[in-house]
Specification:
Helix content: 25-40%
Distance between the termini: 55 Å
Bound molecules: iron/sulfur cluster
CATH superfamily of the largest domain: Response regulator
Structural class: alpha/beta
CATH class of the largest domain: Alpha Beta
Number of strands: 20
Strand order of the largest sheet: 1-7-6-5-4-2-3
Strand content: 15-25%
Largest sheet: 7 strands, mixed
Shape: globular
Number of domains: 4
Radius of gyration: 23 Å
Protein backbone atom coordinates (compact mmCIF):
# COMPACT_ATOMS: atom_id res chain seq x y z
CA UNK A 1 0.00 0.00 0.00
CA UNK A 2 1.60 3.30 -0.94
CA UNK A 3 0.40 6.65 0.11
CA UNK A 4 0.85 10.15 -1.26
CA UNK A 5 0.63 12.89 1.27
CA UNK A 6 1.19 16.47 0.27
CA UNK A 7 0.82 19.50 2.44
CA UNK A 8 1.17 18.94 5.34
CA UNK A 9 2.46 15.71 6.85
CA UNK A 10 -0.46 13.96 8.57
CA UNK A 11 -0.96 15.28 12.05
CA UNK A 12 -2.01 12.80 14.70
CA UNK A 13 -4.04 14.04 17.62
CA UNK A 14 -2.79 13.55 21.10
CA UNK A 15 -4.09 10.28 22.47
CA UNK A 16 -7.20 10.73 24.55
CA UNK A 17 -7.95 14.21 23.23
CA UNK A 18 -11.55 14.27 22.10
CA UNK A 19 -12.04 15.45 18.56
CA UNK A 20 -14.60 18.24 18.40
CA UNK A 21 -17.58 17.34 16.25
CA UNK A 22 -19.18 19.65 13.74
CA UNK A 23 -22.58 19.51 15.40
CA UNK A 24 -25.09 21.73 13.65
CA UNK A 25 -22.86 22.52 10.68
CA UNK A 26 -24.33 21.73 7.30
CA UNK A 27 -23.00 19.82 4.30
CA UNK A 28 -23.83 19.54 0.63
CA UNK A 29 -22.70 16.74 -1.70
CA UNK A 30 -22.18 17.10 -5.42
CA UNK A 31 -21.69 13.73 -7.11
CA UNK A 32 -20.54 13.01 -10.65
CA UNK A 33 -20.32 9.65 -12.37
CA UNK A 34 -21.42 6.12 -11.64
CA UNK A 35 -23.33 4.22 -8.96
CA UNK A 36 -20.06 3.47 -7.18
CA UNK A 37 -19.61 7.22 -6.69
CA UNK A 38 -23.25 7.65 -5.63
CA UNK A 39 -22.73 4.99 -3.02
CA UNK A 40 -19.43 6.52 -1.87
CA UNK A 41 -21.30 9.82 -1.43
CA UNK A 42 -23.84 8.08 0.78
CA UNK A 43 -20.96 6.89 2.91
CA UNK A 44 -19.50 10.37 3.12
CA UNK A 45 -22.94 11.64 4.18
CA UNK A 46 -23.02 8.93 6.85
CA UNK A 47 -19.60 9.98 8.16
CA UNK A 48 -20.59 13.66 8.15
CA UNK A 49 -23.80 12.91 10.05
CA UNK A 50 -21.89 10.77 12.54
CA UNK A 51 -19.80 13.92 13.09
CA UNK A 52 -22.92 15.93 13.88
CA UNK A 53 -23.47 17.64 10.54
CA UNK A 54 -26.84 17.94 8.86
CA UNK A 55 -27.66 17.99 5.17
CA UNK A 56 -28.15 21.46 3.67
CA UNK A 57 -31.09 21.99 1.36
CA UNK A 58 -29.01 24.06 -1.06
CA UNK A 59 -25.35 24.58 -1.68
CA UNK A 60 -25.64 28.22 -0.55
CA UNK A 61 -26.69 27.13 2.93
CA UNK A 62 -23.82 24.68 3.32
CA UNK A 63 -20.76 25.02 5.54
CA UNK A 64 -19.01 22.08 3.88
CA UNK A 65 -19.20 21.03 0.23
CA UNK A 66 -17.96 17.62 -0.85
CA UNK A 67 -17.40 17.14 -4.59
CA UNK A 68 -17.24 13.49 -5.60
CA UNK A 69 -15.51 13.49 -8.97
CA UNK A 70 -15.47 11.25 -12.04
CA UNK A 71 -12.84 10.82 -14.75
CA UNK A 72 -14.58 8.41 -17.04
CA UNK A 73 -15.43 10.96 -19.66
CA UNK A 74 -13.58 14.03 -20.78
CA UNK A 75 -16.50 16.38 -20.26
CA UNK A 76 -16.74 15.15 -16.65
CA UNK A 77 -13.21 16.54 -16.13
CA UNK A 78 -14.11 19.82 -17.76
CA UNK A 79 -17.22 20.12 -15.63
CA UNK A 80 -15.18 19.40 -12.52
CA UNK A 81 -12.72 22.22 -13.06
CA UNK A 82 -15.56 24.58 -13.98
CA UNK A 83 -17.31 23.60 -10.78
CA UNK A 84 -14.22 24.08 -8.66
CA UNK A 85 -13.86 27.57 -10.11
CA UNK A 86 -17.42 28.39 -9.07
CA UNK A 87 -16.86 26.88 -5.65
CA UNK A 88 -13.99 29.27 -5.03
CA UNK A 89 -16.60 32.04 -4.81
CA UNK A 90 -18.68 29.82 -2.50
CA UNK A 91 -15.76 29.38 -0.15
CA UNK A 92 -14.81 33.03 -0.13
CA UNK A 93 -18.38 34.17 0.58
CA UNK A 94 -18.25 33.05 4.22
CA UNK A 95 -15.38 32.44 6.58
CA UNK A 96 -14.95 28.90 7.84
CA UNK A 97 -16.46 27.18 4.83
CA UNK A 98 -14.72 24.00 3.71
CA UNK A 99 -14.33 22.44 0.31
CA UNK A 100 -13.51 18.73 0.03
CA UNK A 101 -12.77 16.95 -3.26
CA UNK A 102 -12.82 13.16 -3.47
CA UNK A 103 -13.53 10.51 -6.10
CA UNK A 104 -11.73 9.32 -9.21
CA UNK A 105 -10.32 12.64 -10.46
CA UNK A 106 -8.86 13.32 -7.04
CA UNK A 107 -7.42 9.81 -6.98
CA UNK A 108 -5.87 10.04 -10.43
CA UNK A 109 -4.99 13.73 -10.78
CA UNK A 110 -4.40 14.75 -7.17
CA UNK A 111 -1.60 17.22 -8.00
CA UNK A 112 -3.59 18.70 -10.87
CA UNK A 113 -6.67 19.28 -8.69
CA UNK A 114 -4.47 20.90 -6.06
CA UNK A 115 -2.70 23.06 -8.68
CA UNK A 116 -5.85 24.15 -10.47
CA UNK A 117 -7.83 24.71 -7.29
CA UNK A 118 -5.48 25.56 -4.41
CA UNK A 119 -8.48 26.82 -2.41
CA UNK A 120 -9.69 23.23 -1.89
CA UNK A 121 -9.23 22.28 1.78
CA UNK A 122 -9.05 18.50 1.42
CA UNK A 123 -8.21 16.33 -1.60
CA UNK A 124 -8.67 12.64 -0.86
CA UNK A 125 -8.75 9.49 -2.94
CA UNK A 126 -11.27 6.75 -3.43
CA UNK A 127 -9.56 4.31 -1.04
CA UNK A 128 -9.50 6.44 2.09
CA UNK A 129 -12.97 7.97 2.23
CA UNK A 130 -13.26 6.74 5.80
CA UNK A 131 -10.62 9.36 6.71
CA UNK A 132 -12.61 12.32 5.41
CA UNK A 133 -13.57 13.79 8.78
CA UNK A 134 -10.09 13.29 10.18
CA UNK A 135 -8.56 15.03 7.16
CA UNK A 136 -11.00 17.93 7.58
CA UNK A 137 -9.80 18.25 11.17
CA UNK A 138 -6.23 18.37 9.91
CA UNK A 139 -7.06 20.98 7.31
CA UNK A 140 -8.73 23.16 9.93
CA UNK A 141 -5.67 23.01 12.11
CA UNK A 142 -2.89 23.03 9.53
CA UNK A 143 -4.22 24.22 6.20
CA UNK A 144 -4.93 22.37 2.92
CA UNK A 145 -4.25 18.64 2.93
CA UNK A 146 -4.01 15.98 0.23
CA UNK A 147 -4.10 12.30 1.06
CA UNK A 148 -4.38 9.61 -1.59
CA UNK A 149 -3.70 5.90 -1.16
CA UNK A 150 -2.73 4.18 -4.40
CA UNK A 151 -4.19 0.76 -3.71
CA UNK A 152 -6.03 -1.20 -1.08
CA UNK A 153 -4.98 -4.54 0.33
CA UNK A 154 -8.36 -5.12 1.98
CA UNK A 155 -11.70 -3.36 1.96
CA UNK A 156 -12.94 -1.56 5.04
CA UNK A 157 -15.62 -3.78 6.56
CA UNK A 158 -18.10 -1.14 7.71
CA UNK A 159 -18.71 2.52 7.16
CA UNK A 160 -21.80 4.43 8.22
CA UNK A 161 -23.91 5.45 5.29
CA UNK A 162 -26.79 7.85 4.80
CA UNK A 163 -29.08 6.39 2.18
CA UNK A 164 -31.16 8.51 -0.15
CA UNK A 165 -33.83 5.81 -0.27
CA UNK A 166 -35.46 4.10 2.73
CA UNK A 167 -36.23 0.91 0.80
CA UNK A 168 -33.27 0.46 -1.57
CA UNK A 169 -29.53 0.41 -0.94
CA UNK A 170 -26.24 -0.20 -2.69
CA UNK A 171 -23.77 -2.61 -1.21
CA UNK A 172 -20.16 -2.62 -2.37
CA UNK A 173 -18.83 -6.13 -2.87
CA UNK A 174 -15.63 -5.40 -4.77
CA UNK A 175 -13.55 -2.46 -5.89
CA UNK A 176 -10.90 -2.11 -8.56
CA UNK A 177 -10.41 -4.19 -11.69
CA UNK A 178 -7.72 -6.52 -13.03
CA UNK A 179 -8.72 -6.12 -16.68
CA UNK A 180 -6.98 -3.89 -19.19
CA UNK A 181 -9.74 -2.52 -21.42
CA UNK A 182 -7.85 0.05 -23.46
CA UNK A 183 -10.53 2.77 -23.19
CA UNK A 184 -10.95 2.54 -19.43
CA UNK A 185 -9.30 4.52 -16.68
CA UNK A 186 -10.83 2.52 -13.84
CA UNK A 187 -7.89 0.13 -13.19
CA UNK A 188 -5.53 3.13 -12.97
CA UNK A 189 -7.86 4.96 -10.61
CA UNK A 190 -9.42 2.25 -8.49
CA UNK A 191 -6.44 -0.13 -8.53
CA UNK A 192 -6.50 -3.92 -8.74
CA UNK A 193 -9.52 -5.97 -7.76
CA UNK A 194 -10.20 -6.30 -4.03
CA UNK A 195 -13.22 -8.29 -2.83
CA UNK A 196 -14.97 -7.65 0.42
CA UNK A 197 -15.34 -10.61 2.82
CA UNK A 198 -18.69 -12.38 2.27
CA UNK A 199 -19.44 -12.30 6.01
CA UNK A 200 -19.12 -8.49 6.04
CA UNK A 201 -21.43 -8.22 3.03
CA UNK A 202 -24.08 -10.48 4.53
CA UNK A 203 -23.95 -8.60 7.85
CA UNK A 204 -24.46 -5.31 6.02
CA UNK A 205 -27.40 -6.72 4.05
CA UNK A 206 -28.97 -8.11 7.24
CA UNK A 207 -28.58 -4.73 8.90
CA UNK A 208 -30.17 -3.02 5.88
CA UNK A 209 -33.07 -5.48 5.95
CA UNK A 210 -33.55 -4.75 9.65
CA UNK A 211 -33.80 -1.04 8.74
CA UNK A 212 -36.56 -1.75 6.21
CA UNK A 213 -34.57 -2.07 2.99
CA UNK A 214 -36.13 -4.56 0.57
CA UNK A 215 -33.92 -4.06 -2.50
CA UNK A 216 -30.12 -4.21 -2.63
CA UNK A 217 -27.82 -3.63 -5.59
CA UNK A 218 -24.41 -5.27 -5.29
CA UNK A 219 -21.67 -3.09 -6.74
CA UNK A 220 -18.34 -4.07 -8.26
CA UNK A 221 -16.35 -3.29 -11.42
CA UNK A 222 -16.36 -6.92 -12.53
CA UNK A 223 -18.61 -8.79 -10.13
CA UNK A 224 -18.22 -12.15 -11.91
CA UNK A 225 -14.70 -12.45 -10.57
CA UNK A 226 -15.82 -11.58 -7.04
CA UNK A 227 -13.94 -13.62 -4.45
CA UNK A 228 -11.00 -14.80 -6.54
CA UNK A 229 -8.63 -12.67 -4.45
CA UNK A 230 -9.93 -14.15 -1.19
CA UNK A 231 -8.68 -17.48 0.10
CA UNK A 232 -11.95 -19.04 1.21
CA UNK A 233 -11.79 -22.64 2.34
CA UNK A 234 -8.14 -22.59 1.23
CA UNK A 235 -9.07 -21.89 -2.40
CA UNK A 236 -9.05 -18.77 -4.53
CA UNK A 237 -11.91 -18.83 -7.01
CA UNK A 238 -14.81 -16.63 -8.17
CA UNK A 239 -17.79 -17.14 -5.87
CA UNK A 240 -20.26 -14.56 -7.10
CA UNK A 241 -22.98 -17.17 -7.66
CA UNK A 242 -22.65 -18.30 -4.05
CA UNK A 243 -22.75 -14.71 -2.86
CA UNK A 244 -25.97 -14.11 -4.80
CA UNK A 245 -27.59 -17.14 -3.18
CA UNK A 246 -26.55 -16.01 0.30
CA UNK A 247 -27.71 -12.42 -0.18
CA UNK A 248 -30.98 -13.72 -1.66
CA UNK A 249 -31.63 -15.73 1.50
CA UNK A 250 -31.47 -12.71 3.84
CA UNK A 251 -34.89 -12.37 5.35
CA UNK A 252 -36.78 -9.29 4.23
CA UNK A 253 -34.74 -8.74 1.04
CA UNK A 254 -37.18 -9.06 -1.86
CA UNK A 255 -35.02 -7.86 -4.73
CA UNK A 256 -31.30 -8.33 -5.42
CA UNK A 257 -29.62 -6.62 -8.36
CA UNK A 258 -25.96 -6.30 -9.29
CA UNK A 259 -23.67 -4.37 -11.59
CA UNK A 260 -21.51 -4.87 -13.56
CA UNK A 261 -20.69 -8.31 -14.86
CA UNK A 262 -18.13 -8.82 -17.64
CA UNK A 263 -19.29 -11.03 -20.55
CA UNK A 264 -15.93 -12.78 -20.57
CA UNK A 265 -16.22 -13.86 -16.94
CA UNK A 266 -19.96 -14.55 -16.83
CA UNK A 267 -20.28 -18.25 -15.97
CA UNK A 268 -23.15 -20.74 -15.89
CA UNK A 269 -22.95 -20.87 -12.06
CA UNK A 270 -23.94 -17.22 -11.90
CA UNK A 271 -26.83 -17.67 -14.36
CA UNK A 272 -28.00 -20.70 -12.35
CA UNK A 273 -27.77 -18.81 -9.07
CA UNK A 274 -29.79 -15.97 -10.60
CA UNK A 275 -32.46 -18.34 -11.89
CA UNK A 276 -32.68 -20.37 -8.67
CA UNK A 277 -32.69 -17.51 -6.16
CA UNK A 278 -36.13 -15.99 -5.96
CA UNK A 279 -35.00 -12.59 -4.73
CA UNK A 280 -32.46 -12.11 -7.54
CA UNK A 281 -34.12 -10.03 -10.23
CA UNK A 282 -34.34 -11.13 -13.86
CA UNK A 283 -32.08 -8.31 -14.95
CA UNK A 284 -28.62 -8.36 -16.47
CA UNK A 285 -26.35 -5.54 -17.53
CA UNK A 286 -24.15 -7.08 -20.23
CA UNK A 287 -21.73 -4.56 -21.77
CA UNK A 288 -21.14 -5.31 -25.45
CA UNK A 289 -19.01 -2.20 -26.27
CA UNK A 290 -18.69 -3.18 -29.96
CA UNK A 291 -19.97 -5.86 -32.32
CA UNK A 292 -16.75 -5.99 -34.36
CA UNK A 293 -14.18 -8.60 -33.37
CA UNK A 294 -11.38 -6.37 -34.65
CA UNK A 295 -12.50 -3.52 -32.39
CA UNK A 296 -13.21 -5.82 -29.44
CA UNK A 297 -9.61 -7.06 -29.72
CA UNK A 298 -8.32 -3.48 -29.87
CA UNK A 299 -10.39 -2.75 -26.78
CA UNK A 300 -8.90 -5.81 -24.98
CA UNK A 301 -12.34 -7.08 -24.10
CA UNK A 302 -11.38 -10.73 -24.25
CA UNK A 303 -14.43 -11.98 -26.19
CA UNK A 304 -15.69 -12.10 -29.75
CA UNK A 305 -19.20 -11.11 -30.76
CA UNK A 306 -20.10 -14.83 -31.10
CA UNK A 307 -18.90 -15.60 -27.60
CA UNK A 308 -20.85 -12.61 -26.30
CA UNK A 309 -24.03 -13.83 -27.99
CA UNK A 310 -23.50 -17.39 -26.73
CA UNK A 311 -23.13 -16.19 -23.14
CA UNK A 312 -26.21 -14.01 -23.52
CA UNK A 313 -28.17 -16.99 -24.88
CA UNK A 314 -27.01 -19.05 -21.88
CA UNK A 315 -28.33 -16.37 -19.51
CA UNK A 316 -31.65 -16.17 -21.37
CA UNK A 317 -32.01 -19.93 -21.38
CA UNK A 318 -31.68 -19.93 -17.58
CA UNK A 319 -34.08 -16.95 -17.26
CA UNK A 320 -36.52 -16.60 -20.16
CA UNK A 321 -37.92 -13.33 -18.71
CA UNK A 322 -34.52 -11.70 -18.48
CA UNK A 323 -34.26 -7.97 -19.16
CA UNK A 324 -30.88 -7.08 -20.64
CA UNK A 325 -29.14 -3.73 -20.89
CA UNK A 326 -25.76 -2.94 -22.41
CA UNK A 327 -23.06 -0.33 -23.04
CA UNK A 328 -21.82 0.50 -26.53
CA UNK A 329 -18.99 2.79 -27.58
CA UNK A 330 -19.25 4.36 -31.04
CA UNK A 331 -16.18 5.67 -32.85
CA UNK A 332 -13.48 3.74 -31.02
CA UNK A 333 -10.11 4.43 -32.74
CA UNK A 334 -9.90 2.53 -36.02
CA UNK A 335 -13.65 1.79 -36.23
CA UNK A 336 -14.68 1.61 -39.88
CA UNK A 337 -18.17 1.64 -41.35
CA UNK A 338 -17.83 -2.14 -41.70
CA UNK A 339 -17.01 -2.50 -37.99
CA UNK A 340 -19.96 -0.31 -37.12
CA UNK A 341 -22.26 -2.45 -39.28
CA UNK A 342 -21.18 -5.45 -37.19
CA UNK A 343 -22.25 -3.57 -34.06
CA UNK A 344 -25.65 -2.91 -35.61
CA UNK A 345 -25.96 -6.61 -36.51
CA UNK A 346 -25.15 -7.74 -32.97
CA UNK A 347 -27.61 -5.20 -31.54
CA UNK A 348 -30.32 -6.70 -33.78
CA UNK A 349 -29.45 -10.21 -32.64
CA UNK A 350 -29.04 -9.41 -28.96
CA UNK A 351 -32.24 -7.36 -28.73
CA UNK A 352 -31.30 -5.36 -25.67
CA UNK A 353 -34.09 -3.80 -23.65
CA UNK A 354 -31.93 -0.80 -22.98
CA UNK A 355 -28.56 0.50 -24.15
CA UNK A 356 -26.22 3.14 -22.75
CA UNK A 357 -24.52 4.47 -25.85
CA UNK A 358 -21.41 6.64 -25.81
CA UNK A 359 -19.33 8.45 -28.37
CA UNK A 360 -15.70 7.50 -27.83
CA UNK A 361 -13.91 10.13 -25.77
CA UNK A 362 -10.18 9.67 -25.16
CA UNK A 363 -9.26 9.52 -21.49
CA UNK A 364 -5.72 10.71 -20.86
CA UNK A 365 -3.69 7.87 -19.42
CA UNK A 366 -5.52 5.12 -21.33
CA UNK A 367 -4.02 3.20 -24.24
CA UNK A 368 -6.89 4.16 -26.50
CA UNK A 369 -6.12 7.84 -25.97
CA UNK A 370 -2.71 7.27 -27.53
CA UNK A 371 -4.21 5.78 -30.74
CA UNK A 372 -4.48 9.27 -32.21
CA UNK A 373 -3.57 8.16 -35.74
CA UNK A 374 -6.74 6.03 -35.77
CA UNK A 375 -9.24 8.52 -34.30
CA UNK A 376 -12.54 8.48 -36.16
CA UNK A 377 -13.53 11.92 -37.56
CA UNK A 378 -16.10 13.48 -35.24
CA UNK A 379 -18.70 13.90 -37.93
CA UNK A 380 -18.58 10.24 -38.96
CA UNK A 381 -18.74 9.08 -35.34
CA UNK A 382 -21.74 11.31 -34.62
CA UNK A 383 -23.54 10.11 -37.71
CA UNK A 384 -23.03 6.47 -36.65
CA UNK A 385 -24.13 7.31 -33.14
CA UNK A 386 -27.41 8.72 -34.49
CA UNK A 387 -28.07 5.50 -36.42
CA UNK A 388 -27.34 3.37 -33.36
CA UNK A 389 -29.68 5.42 -31.16
CA UNK A 390 -32.42 5.09 -33.77
CA UNK A 391 -31.98 1.32 -34.00
CA UNK A 392 -32.05 0.90 -30.22
CA UNK A 393 -35.13 3.09 -29.93
CA UNK A 394 -36.95 0.71 -32.26
CA UNK A 395 -35.69 -2.43 -30.52
CA UNK A 396 -36.43 -0.97 -27.05
CA UNK A 397 -39.99 -0.13 -28.13
CA UNK A 398 -40.47 -3.64 -29.55
CA UNK A 399 -39.11 -5.25 -26.39
CA UNK A 400 -41.43 -3.12 -24.25
CA UNK A 401 -44.46 -3.89 -26.43
CA UNK A 402 -44.14 -7.56 -25.42
CA UNK A 403 -45.26 -6.57 -21.93
CA UNK A 404 -48.66 -5.20 -23.02
CA UNK A 405 -51.40 -6.87 -21.00
CA UNK A 406 -48.91 -8.60 -18.67
CA UNK A 407 -49.32 -8.52 -14.91
CA UNK A 408 -46.04 -7.40 -13.35
CA UNK A 409 -44.81 -6.72 -9.83
CA UNK A 410 -43.46 -3.18 -9.42
CA UNK A 411 -41.66 -1.42 -6.59
CA UNK A 412 -42.77 2.19 -6.15
CA UNK A 413 -39.90 4.69 -6.11
CA UNK A 414 -41.97 7.85 -5.54
CA UNK A 415 -43.86 10.44 -7.54
CA UNK A 416 -42.72 10.85 -11.13
CA UNK A 417 -40.48 13.89 -11.63
CA UNK A 418 -42.74 15.29 -14.33
CA UNK A 419 -46.13 14.62 -12.77
CA UNK A 420 -46.64 14.23 -9.00
CA UNK A 421 -50.00 12.54 -9.61
CA UNK A 422 -48.23 9.64 -11.29
CA UNK A 423 -46.00 7.19 -9.41
CA UNK A 424 -42.68 6.00 -10.85
CA UNK A 425 -42.12 2.31 -10.19
CA UNK A 426 -39.77 -0.42 -11.40
CA UNK A 427 -40.37 -3.97 -12.53
CA UNK A 428 -38.05 -6.76 -11.43
CA UNK A 429 -36.40 -6.33 -14.83
CA UNK A 430 -35.71 -2.68 -13.86
CA UNK A 431 -38.14 -1.24 -16.40
CA UNK A 432 -39.73 2.06 -15.46
CA UNK A 433 -43.52 1.89 -15.10
CA UNK A 434 -45.75 4.93 -14.59
CA UNK A 435 -48.84 4.23 -12.50
CA UNK A 436 -51.55 6.82 -12.08
CA UNK A 437 -52.21 7.67 -8.43
CA UNK A 438 -50.27 8.41 -5.26
CA UNK A 439 -48.48 5.47 -3.65
CA UNK A 440 -45.96 5.28 -0.85
CA UNK A 441 -42.35 4.79 -1.94
CA UNK A 442 -41.14 1.30 -1.15
CA UNK A 443 -44.41 -0.58 -1.66
CA UNK A 444 -44.61 -3.58 -3.95
CA UNK A 445 -47.75 -3.96 -6.00
CA UNK A 446 -49.01 -5.71 -9.09
CA UNK A 447 -49.94 -3.74 -12.17
CA UNK A 448 -51.25 -4.64 -15.61
CA UNK A 449 -49.32 -2.98 -18.41
CA UNK A 450 -51.65 -0.88 -20.55
CA UNK A 451 -49.27 1.14 -22.71
CA UNK A 452 -45.67 0.84 -23.82
CA UNK A 453 -43.06 3.27 -25.14
CA UNK A 454 -39.38 2.97 -26.06
CA UNK A 455 -38.15 3.96 -22.59
CA UNK A 456 -41.00 3.21 -20.20
CA UNK A 457 -44.30 1.41 -19.62
CA UNK A 458 -47.65 2.54 -18.24
CA UNK A 459 -49.54 0.26 -15.85
CA UNK A 460 -52.83 0.15 -13.94
CA UNK A 461 -53.01 -1.31 -10.42
CA UNK A 462 -54.16 -4.91 -10.77
S1 LIG B 1 -13.71 -4.54 -17.03
FE1 LIG B 1 -12.75 -3.11 -18.46
S2 LIG B 1 -14.28 -1.45 -18.64
FE2 LIG B 1 -14.81 -2.61 -16.77
S3 LIG B 1 -13.72 -1.52 -15.14
FE3 LIG B 1 -12.38 -3.19 -15.80
S4 LIG B 1 -11.02 -2.23 -17.33
FE4 LIG B 1 -12.80 -0.85 -17.04
Amino acid sequence: MSQTVLLPAPARREPGRRRPTRAGRTYFLRTFGCQMNEHDSERVAGLFEADGMVKARTIDEADVVFVNTCTIRENADNRLYGNLGMLKRFKEAREGRMLVVGGCAAQKDRELVRKRAPWVDVVLGTHNLDRVVHLMDQAEEWGPVTEVIDSLSAMPSDLPSRRESAHAAWVTVQIGCNNTCTFCIVPAVRGPEVSRRPGDIIREVEQLAAEGVIEVTLLGQNVDTYGRDLAIGGRRRPIFGELLRRVGRVEGIRRVRFTSPHPNDFRPEVAEAMAETEAVCEQLHFPLQSGSNRILAAMHRGYTSDKFLRRLAMAREAMPDLTVSTDVIVGFPGETEEDFQKTLEVMEKARFDQAYMFLFSPRPGTRAAAMTDRFVPEEAAKERFGRLVELQRRIGAEQNRRHLGQRMEVLVEGPSKKNPLVAAARTRGNKMVHVEGEFDPGILMDVVISRSFAHYLVGDPA
